[in-house]
Amino acid sequence: MFPKENKAIIEGLLLVANEPLSAAKLAEILELSEEDILELLALLTEHYNEEGHGFQLIQLAGGYQITTRAEHAVYIEQLYQPAPTGLSKASLETLAIIAYKQPVTKSEIEMIRGVKVERSLSTLLEKGLIIETGRKEGPGKPIIYGTTNDFLRHFGLASLADLPDLNKFLEQSQNKEDADIEKME
Amino acid sequence: MAYEIKINAFQGPFDLLFYLIEKNELDIYNIPIAEITEQYLEYLDQMETMDLDITSEFLVMAARLLAIKAKMLLPKPIRDFDNQCDEELDPRQELVNQLLEYKMFKEIAHYLKEKEQSSGKIFSRAIDPEELMEQFAIGKNQLKNLTLSSLAKAFDQVIARLEQEERVVKIEIDEYSIETKMAEITKKLFLQPNGVQFFQLFGEGATIKEVVITFLALLELTKLQQIIVVQINPLGDIFIFRNTVDGRD
User: Is the ipTM of this complex over 0.90?
Assistant: First the structure.
């Protein structure tokens, strides 16, 4: 069907790329249609999984990337100590708000958390997880923030649509409340 | 009354309220406002005694709780029969809604933390921008190969390209300012850590004004040392990178 070479070329591209490559980009380089690319990617994914390869082909941040498997983390970590990038609770909360409410201003975030968010914002900006996407109309023209592609990669998301529905969390926190109330009765 | 002297550094008033609600096993939908206000104020006293920093948000919340308490103590207004009134607004409602919304985001933060840990278990190759630059044989002097005239020549090329294209004349509101362009460029650089080409900064429908402002934004960013501009061949492509190399100050 396809010259075997196309699959190999995609493999090569994914190998040297240091960030996820979109199907469109691959289509451009190989001069194939996007559907063909998607088919080839599916074949590669299946192949890696079935043959038990140590790497996998996943969707991340709007593109495709070859990565190692989670099961082998304990070995990889011995070779290559990743910097502990654990975010603080405060930064995570600020990030959560930005992720779901973007575009959002600093004061809108502060309204929800009830504290000043200056420090979390600088941390998140520094780590490239959020970015200033412009200014909001109105008095003071406050800066508005949004998440970046690095955010998606850091948290292993293929796209923002991958974030679970807000309602799920609403129910979760309400259920917790109800459970607490039931405990009392 | 014996107080638990917990050295709890609460991030903010909401966290303190959640703590009190949990500790007293209160129903968040029906908070006994007098009780919680009293405990909240006692806690602030303790914080003061222990020399903990009570930020203004804590004080604002204290005032808010007192206001809610006062409202709840006031007699309810007498309504006429033909007076169309909405359901009585519970003075606690707004606070409760805020607490619930914040609680929801705490759950989301927890979810993100788990995602962070699980995705921390998969690895991919990471390119070091410094290594990349070394491949281009650029030393510490980032502007070595770039002169003002080559920048100006590139700029001329863009303008010339624009003038050749036919464009429908449309009078639009000016959306561009140097700051906006600077933010745009920075954003592009985050998304493309491998570098952005000078010509990629201009869209197809770029007006001359946009090109000029982009150019000025680039100069400003270079001055602020937030970007590195590199040209390998004279008259060749100019690449722009985010400046992550030490020695910024």
Answer: no
